[in-house]
Design brief:
By secondary structure, the chain is α+β, with helices and mostly antiparallel strands. The chain has five helices and 16 strands. About 15% of the residues lie in helices and about 35% in strands. It has a five-stranded mixed beta barrel. The chain has a five-stranded antiparallel sheet with strand order 12-16-15-14-13. Strands 1-6-7 form a three-stranded antiparallel sheet, with no helix packed on it.
Amino acid sequence: MNRQLAVLFTLFIGVCPLLAQGGNPGSDSVPQPRQVTYCELSRDPAAYNHELIRITAFMTHGFENFHLADPNCATQDFSVWVMYGGKAESDTVYCCPGEGGGKTRSESLMVEGVQVPLVNNLTFQQFTDLLRKESDTTVRVTAVGRFFAGEKRTTNGVTFWAGAGHLGCCSLFVVQRVESFEVHTRPDLDYTAEAGWYEKEGCKVRSLRDQRHVSIADPDSTTEQAIAGQRRADSGETKWMFSDPQRVALESVKPLYPGQVPVLRRVKKTSARQVFRWKNGKNQVVVVVNRPYWLSFYAASGSVVWVSTMVKEAGCD
């Protein structure tokens, strides 16, 4: 769900209208789940309401963020919030440090009259350890859980499914069992979900204008463009995208400032992320380029291109 649409929802912090708690903990036995892709869920959420499903997708976890995601399904009318079944809390921070619901709830989770248990095995513990270790992260995971479509709403001509998660943004997936996940071992990849959103502007901010943001947590046409860029580089058409992050940054800024000649200064450099700034009059333009972890799943050679994931302008006093 993009940030512009989110403001249309009724604000609530940490409590989902879909949820009620109570009942006895369920059994760890799991009935045969229905295999489904994220794209299939997005096309017809109501068809899977209350279904036990198995899904392989990306999970993003961070500030005000615990989502299922798939860059192949760029849609603004469908987003899925994640929770754990049983008594386990995700410890997702909503507004302030220390506000995230803790690690456990007092009673086993029940949603819309459905008891949702949790298999709290070694795989689940290793998965949650990874999320605790990396405060903002993206993980490729296969999980079994219960899906709740939520309520179909229309606001300002936009129809979407909502009721769960931050700002009531989303449908809901409650994890019953984590079957597998990909561990994070590559220092050349950026595993974060925020994709540069929180990089500092380098001045006292008077106003902030977001120009461009490419995040797996908010897939849209820009994620599709990133995949297309990876494929062009793999084909040899734009091989420089593997080795020239500054050119990638410059090419992303030029269309936003026609007739100007941006002069980028590198202010941060790691093997997975670089940040550039350009003093444009009284304003500061910040450009973040990285090698997104999720893009590695589309890389023919295993090498991931540099992608401009954030361009934002701050007005400085």
